[in-house]
């Protein structure tokens, strides 16, 4: 019996297997997210190893733990093998299903926006770029679904906010036009 190790032999195959990841180079913790990740599937066991390896390489530090939304993923393992260690995976129902948190050795955790796997390429590329450009005051939903704000709808300026007690969106008093 012969075993063959498959590795990308062409740039096209390498591009297909490389994680689609963007990170803010500053990681200043002022933004809503620190970058974005566009996995190819919802299979956490298949997708997380390449994400962990890419973040390890780009930050020069080891990912120690991954936190994700339980209902947003299929096949969630308890641990992911990584270079010289096992990365623990925690899952939650209270977190935003479009976010994933990576605890990193020697620094604060980073939060990545997860772009759904079946998102159109142009839209996903725009979300990857926006998430890495700085997201102060921008909600994850605004990155995933950018639209021109409609009159009376919540805006990027925080005109509508999630109420901490009671869990509903609250709007400030409407702005009335000045009368002459």
List keywords for this structure.
alpha+beta, 7-stranded mixed β-sheet, two-stranded antiparallel ribbon, disordered C terminus, DUF5994
Reconstruct the topology from this structure.
Layout: H1 11-17, E1 21-23, E2 35-37, H2 44-59, E3 63-69, E4 79-82, E5 85-92, E6 99-104, E7 110-114, H3 121-133, H4 140-144, E8 161-162, E9 169-170
Parallel strand pairs: 2-7, 3-5
Antiparallel strand pairs: 1-2, 3-6, 4-5, 6-7, 8-9
Explain how this protein is built.
This protein has helices at residues 11-17, 44-59, 121-133, 140-144; strands at 21-23, 35-37, 63-69, 79-82, 85-92, 99-104, 110-114, 161-162, 169-170. By secondary structure, the protein is an alpha+beta fold. The protein has a seven-stranded mixed sheet, with helices on both faces. It has a two-stranded antiparallel sheet with strand order 8-9.
Separation, N- and C-terminal Cα atoms:
88 Å
Low-confidence stretches: 1-15, 148-180
List how many beta strands DSSP finds: 9
Proportion of residues in helical segments: 10-25%
Q: Which structural category do the helix and sheet elements fall into?
A: alpha+beta
Order of helices and strands: HEEHEEEEEHHEE
Strand order in the largest sheet = 1-2-7-6-3-5-4
Shape: globular
Instruction: Please summarize the sheet with the most strands.
Output: 7 strands, mixed
